[in-house]
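Appendix B. Extra example for self-study. Work through it before the problem class; the solution is given directly after the inputs so you can check yourself.
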Amino acid sequence: MIGFFKNRQIYIELRPRCPKCKKEFMLDLKKFLPGKAHGCHACGTIARFDAQLAERVQKLIHDLELSLREVHESFASQEAHE
Ligand SMILES: [Zn+2]
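Solution. Structure tokens for the complete assembly:
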């Protein structure tokens, strides 16, 4: 899993496997959305995203983005000490 915070946006990439052929695919966690699915490029299997889990994940990403912004601001608001 890789993750970073750039332009005030979180980017987290996961490498899940196709349930059928087990081929890894790249999943941008922000695209893990309720009602969406992943079509395997290797075997064509459609892996549906768990709607409740997807909703929970999106909310967590949103909350985390807000918190990370606060981390940046907490440094920005400090006075510089040598
Ligand atoms: Zn597959």
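Self-check: The mean pLDDT is 92. If your reasoning did not lead you there, revisit section 3.
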